[in-house]
Amino acid sequence: MSRAVYVALTTLAAPLALAAPAQAQDAPAPAQQAAPAETAPAAGQMTPEQIAAFNQAVTDFTAGQQAQQAGDNAAAAAKYEAALPAIRTAVQAQPDKIDNVNFLANALYADAAAQGAQGRMDKVIALYGESLPHWRKLVEAKPADAASRNILAGILIQLGNQKLAAKDMTGADPYYKEALTLARKSVAENAADKTNKNILLSALIGASQTANDEALRKEALDMGKAMMADGTIDAINKPSIEAMTGQKAG
After folding, report:
1. For 84-95, what is each residue's pLDDT tens digit?
2. pTM metric for this prediction
3. Helices 73-93 and 98-117, interaxial angle, to 10°?
4. E strands within the chain?
5. CA distances (Å), origin 10, targets 16, 50, 89, 109
6. Integer Cα distance of 237 and 205 in angstroms
7. Which domains are delineated in the chain?
8. pLDDT tens across 127-169, in order?
9. How far, in Å, CA of 56 to CA of 52, rounded?
10. Which residues, if any, are the signal sequence (predicted)?
């Protein structure tokens, strides 16, 4: 079963249609720019050099998106990797600026997509792990943002899958439980949405293997069989449900 779950690892790292943020305009006033180089910027401010680097990161990220949409994942990854240091610095300097947190979370996710397309799964897992606190912060700040909530749930499932594939049931379980809470909220908001249903099913399949909870296993089976019957089950979930039920989808 763990293998059937683990093969879903690359499926949620899809290219994003994220618009890059506007370039930073909040440079210090000229008098502040004239301060000695050794003077540290005030808390919550970025130096002129950091702002220039951030603006270049916006350009690099945009180029990465264009390359990714054209199918050149190697070029996309190179552009994302070039952009990430300055975006990380911006978030460190202004941790409460949610737009920058959003930018970093999405840049890490987009890089994971490009890396995954090249089969670099260790890199994907590392990028997912780094992005996790930023997605959590974003979802907390914007609880009505279903798209971000689903991405966070998907990342949690993938991290759980990686632990499960390594036979680390204890390590996998919290990821699946957190994903379940998020996925249930999305399904409660829109039960007819196929993406919402499949994310919930993925979380249930994982949790049913780690939580030792018969109710979760029954819920996964019932939901999986219903989705196989109506054709809404995704390819990532179908092998696991087939293994659990002993049946083949049509």
Report:
1. 999 999 999 999
2. 0.84
3. 160
4. none
5. 14, 33, 28, 12
6. 8
7. 47-120 (1.20.58), 143-249 (1.25.40)
8. 999 999 999 999 999 999 999 999 999 999 999 999 999 999 9
9. 6
10. 1-24
